Amino acid sequence: MTACAIETATGGGEAAPPTPGAPAGTPGTPDAAGPAGPGGRPEGFAITANGAYAARLAGSGEALYVERWTLDGPEPYAVPLPLAQPEEPGTLLLPLADGRVLVGRAVDGRRYAFSLLYPTGPDTGELSLGSVEAPAAGTLTLLPPSPDGICAYAMCVGPDTTTLWLVAGGAFGPEQVAEIKGRCGGGVWLDRTGRMLALDRQLDDGPVKAVAIDLERGGEVTPLLQITEDSNDRLLLADPDSGLLLIRSDAPSPGHDRLGWGVLGSLLPVRFPDCLRLDDAAVTPFAVQPGQVLMPESCGVALRIDAAAGSWVGMWRPSSRRLNQLCAPAGWLAGAGLWTADGVLRLPYATEGTPCGLADLTEPAELPVPEAEPVTPEPKVCRPVPLQQAPLTDGRIAG
């Protein structure tokens, strides 16, 4: 496997893509990876908050089954969890920290039945948890894996309200934990305990605003992002260690979303770096480096870059005015990955020869000028305080 890196300067203009054809045609392209789920997460692939396990739908055609990946050992490996009845393409799944995998299957359109799968010698064990009735078909989604690794939550979006369900980790099967006024999307955890959750909420026909939900106080809602009164302000990622927030908003250019960053609980302005604005390409953050306590500017951020040529990877830090772009490994499960505390980005991939692999990428050395030849790095197989009225930063100091 090879990877190429191209660095772009802060400033406008089109970023140079990786070597033509490098990522295209692999399972890491948008078509092969499937549509993105809530918050831009890859549909059908999820990683636990501690990075120990992952799960996806494997197989092909009508012979789909759940596959659990173990990521925290010397080498990654996959354990198939097939049942007598194949899984449907729309099956929801989420790994837990104990190695079990939560699955949610649509039954009769609106009802979702949840159960836990786990290996039992040569067979697959299944523990039924109960079901949840959704307002309409396709309105129930799973939230990202909880930081505690035990609980799993689902979100049902209705015409006027959004309901949160605890579907795993409770004492008596699925139970409703909160009902929130408005239509919500996204889903980002703000702490390490699984208490504070951020959702993107829209009231009536107003703008979308990220709000904080306190699950231990019956779903109490607190404003989180309010850049301008009329802007759509969504939260994409948050790092509880440093307080770094990755934000998508149309505040700096109404009608056109920009990617920016802020700090949880800070009164400093939200910044919208020019280097994260690429012509003819969509840029979506998917992982933040942990362990950078109180140092949000030092956090590494991994970004999925999608364009006509395919999908590749961006690596960026708020303290830098440059975006490193690298070719994704062949078979990358696009939009999936995690950082280690020491700054290594781990990307899961699956090919015919390596059905379960991790590619370790590190940031390339600084290039003297943006036009330099691409370099090829050698890959290796708090209780939060809501971000209050944050004015737009002056473009002259955008990071």
Runs with pLDDT <50, length 5+?
1-43, 368-399
The residue fraction in helices comes out at: under 10%
Number of DSSP helical runs: 1
Main sheet: strand order: 1-24-23-22-21
- Gross morphology is globular
Biggest sheet descriptor: 5 strands, antiparallel
Ends: how far apart?
Answer: 33 Å
List keywords for this structure.
399 residues; mainly beta; five-stranded antiparallel sheet; four-stranded antiparallel sheet; 1 helix; 27 strands; 41% strand; globular; disordered N terminus; disordered C terminus
Question: If you had to describe this structure to a student in words, what would you say it looks like?
Answer:
With 399 residues, the chain is an all-beta fold. It contains 1 helix and 27 strands. The N terminus and C terminus are likely disordered.
Compact description:
The protein is an all-beta fold and 399 residues long. It has one helix at 30-33, and strands at residues 5-8, 45-47, 53-60, 63-70, 77-81, 92-95, 101-107, 111-120, 123-133, 140-142, 152-157, 161-168, 175-181, 183-189, 196-202, 208-214, 220-223, 233-238, 244-249, 258-263, 282-288, 301-307, 310-316, 323-326, 338-339, 345-349, 357-361.
